[in-house]
Amino acid sequence: MPWTMPLRPSRRSLLAGAAGAAGAVLLTGCSEGSPADEDFGIPLERRMRETAVRDSERLLERYDATTAAHPALAQRLAPLRTAVAAHAAALATADRGSGAGSGAGSGAGSAGKASGAPAGTAAPSAAPSGGPVPPKPADALTGLADAERSLAEERTIALAGAPGELARMLASVAACGHVHAYLLTSTPGDTA
After folding, report:
1. Cα 162–152–143 angle (5° rounding)?
2. Rounded mean pLDDT of 16-28?
3. pTM, whole model, 2 decimals?
């Protein structure tokens, strides 16, 4: 029998596998004091919040890189970018408010600084969290939409292990990500 290259798995099968793996981890990590509850003394909720802040900051960098590469898109991207900055700030503020420490505090400073007009500090031809910004504006918008959609799906999967208030916040931010993906791929006349 000749060897053939296996087909790439679909995104749906990867997500289903990730959800199944997350469920298995949750089921096996139910005993008190398990390492799944705390990693080197850092509470699960704090780690999840810090990860969410970092993910939002990477998405902000992608918005900045896209705006720098395609200045004509700045007005269209500004409200979406502002919402992503608000998500990062809310996640970081909630973490700091719970007394979790300074790990996410640096994220709050970055998100707060980033909540104004696009900084344009990223290299115009590179999006830090997804490779180079495509040269065509439509492709750049599709790339941003894919990044928003992917992050929203990751956050939806993370809901299974998140504590109550963080789960509500992640669900809300994930829903916004799906709306952003829709707005990024619709024509400007469709969104009015």
Report:
1. 155
2. 51
3. 0.64
